[in-house]
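Morning!

This is the sequence you dropped in the shared folder:
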Amino acid sequence: KVFDTVLHRTVAMKVLFPEHRDNAITSERFAEEAQIMGQLEHPNIVPVHDYGEDDNGVRFFTMYYVRGKTLTEILQTDTVADGSREAYFKLLNIFLRVCEAVAFAHSRGVVHRDLKPDNIMVGSFGEVYLMDWGIARLLTHSAANPTGESDEQVRVKRVRADDDEKGQIIGTFFYMSPEQANAEIDKIDERTDIFLLGGVMYELL
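The structure's back. Tokens below.
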């Protein structure tokens, strides 16, 4: 949480942990996250304001500071635990907003890969944001854009190789899809996120 002295507003600033700053792959993924989020302009995706390096050469990016709670925190409150019709209606509305954000990302050739209640923020006035695009994956071809030639596709300035994830299990254990658990990177596509959304829906119900 930092203060923007130019526009006089509070923003969230994301930086790499010190132990990861010398790791080239991690640094490139960090830069990609900022670029991906910066291009996914949608009401339910938290907007990025700036990206750069501080005086010590530490990379950072700033984004809208969400004042609210994670969906995980909401699920643990008494008003939800009572199982009332109103509680289910509220949760389903949050879930629908997340689905809209995911559908938009897919239309731009991006798969989130880490959908879970911890990464869903609900603002004090009902705003819903899908957070943490740190392991998002760009698809060369997507269902919405089978040729991969759309001007609306998200593009990043990449240094690292596309296949540097091969053989790695990437995701959150309790929510990951079978292809993530089996490190089958080539099989990851929009259906991966749909599986993860199913996990979130299961938890809501």
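Headline: The two ends are 33 Å apart (CA to CA).

More detail when I'm at my desk.
O.
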